Amino acid sequence: MPKRTVPLTDIQVRNIKPQQKEIKLFDGGGLFLLVTPAGGKLWRLKYRFDGKDKKLSFGAYPEISLLAARQKRDEARA
What is the pTM of this model? Predict the structure, then answer.
């Protein structure tokens, strides 16, 4: 059984601070926010194709909101 992921909120995304290492905040369905040590917040989608792990990038946080990233995830999954 897969691990249950609690969806992110806009406040969590807005208030996350960069750390020494990259941070991954998972939203569910393979969507996650990658927070880089330089302060970048990048939306990524992790999925498997032909038995291999793949990643798809959607853009940076302020330009791509949480709602827009979820919509892009759903479009990519379709």
Answer: 0.89
Tokens 């609690």 locate to 6
CA distance 13 to 47: 22
Q: In what order do the strands lie in the sheet with 52-60?
A: 23-28, 31-35, 41-49, 52-60
Domain at 46, CATH number: 3.30.160.390
Residue 1's pLDDT band (boundaries 50, 70, 90)?
A: low
In a domain, 5, yes or no: no
Contacts of 36 (CB under 8 A, 6+ apart): 18, 22, 42
Query: Considering the domain boundaries, does residue 64 fall inside one?
Result: yes
